[in-house]
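Q: Please design a sequence for this.
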């Protein structure tokens, strides 16, 4: 870097500067990353508690950067949201995930469903419904095999326009899941407004089930509330058998976590699916 530039930045904390530079360089490469196929999707199995079967997966974005190695989504999703690149990125991830699901169906697992994370910003985007429906049509996947995850904070803050978008998605058969449930300090009235099929209890509560009585109460009452509203429940971040068993006693419908399956490449997921079938 030129010396004059160095002086200009001198008052900044070097670590902060490095961080800012890193983010800038990541952002600059993000558009090309999609074109160059550096963005790929990891699939984390979602297990049905009653049967132990893999009934679906969550699509999690990954960036295989040629110089930096694997960049986690926490380092590029927020930047993509701020810079207007999230629509493009999500279109790409959705396309990969829906294509993968269609191929899983052709391999004989016709009830497999896929969950894709949706940024708050996209719910404002006029092109969202079309993008979702075109992607499903392109791969001939029925809408009810797609679950869109929106965070509780998004669901809570949703104004009329967004509720309309969610209603249109739901009316077309796409399912909706409220992600990171419990982190929003919310009143519960939004649950009535949002046509959610599923409530996904945040990892921060699930991981504390063993040790914390208050988290146990929180999780148990969430499951009961969801069931009384006719919604399914998913627990995320299940890391061991003790927690899994607690959730079973609480009649949680689905689980996800390192204990039942880490995020993995599509080929590994397909292997697991056919292994489970022959067991
Ligand atoms: P999330 O949607 O809450 O996803 C769950 C995160 O928890 C994932 O991290 C997953 O790898 C991790 N995880 C799963 N099971 C366990 C467990 O047992 N223990 C622990 N400690 N962690 C577990 P990941 O893949 O790094 O994703 C982080 C966040 O990035 C996601 O949180 C989501 O908010 C966002 N994200 C990922 N992919 C996308 C995407 O395609 N679009 C959007 N908008 N956001 C995405
Ligand atoms: Ca999620
Ligand atoms: Ca989550
Ligand atoms: Ca989260």
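A: Design:
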């Amino acid at each position: 870097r030129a010396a004059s530039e160095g002086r200009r930045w001198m008052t900044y904390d070097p670590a902060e500067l490095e961080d800012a530079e890193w983010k800038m360089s990541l952002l600059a490469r993000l558009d090309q990353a999609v074109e160059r196929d550096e963005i790929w999707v990891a699939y984390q199995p979602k297990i049905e508690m009653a049967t132990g079967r893999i009934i679906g997966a969550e699509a999690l974005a990954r960036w295989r950067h040629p110089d930096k190695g694997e960049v986690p989504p926490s380092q590029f999703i927020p930047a993509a949201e701020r810079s207007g690149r999230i629509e493009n990125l999500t279109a790409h991830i959705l396309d990969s995930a829906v294509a993968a699901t269609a191929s899983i169906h052709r391999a004989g697992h016709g009830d497999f469903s896929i969950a894709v994370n949706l940024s708050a910003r996209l719910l404002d985007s006029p092109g969202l419904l079309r993008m979702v429906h075109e992607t499903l049509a392109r791969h001939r996947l029925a809408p009810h095999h797609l679950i869109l995850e929106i965070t509780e904070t998004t669901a809570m803050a949703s104004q009329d326009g967004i509720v309309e978008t969610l209603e249109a998605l739901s009316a077309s058969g796409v399912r909706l899941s409220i992600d990171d449930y419990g982190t929003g300090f919310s009143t519960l009235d939004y649950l009535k407004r949002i046509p959610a099929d599923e409530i996904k209890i945040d990892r921060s509560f699930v991981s504390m089930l063993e040790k914390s009585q208050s988290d146990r109460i929180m999780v148990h009452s969430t499951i009961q509330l969801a069931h009384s509203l006719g919604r399914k429940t998913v627990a995320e971040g299940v890391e061991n058998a003790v927690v899994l068993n607690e959730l079973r006693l609480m009649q949680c419908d689905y689980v996800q976590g390192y204990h039942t399956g880490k995020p993995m490449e599509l080929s590994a997921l397909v292997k697991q699916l056919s292994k489970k079938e022959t067991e």
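Q: Thanks. Anything notable?
A: Residues 14-35 form the longest helix (22 residues). Residues 58, 117, 149, 179 surround calcium ion (ligand 2) (CB under 6 Å).
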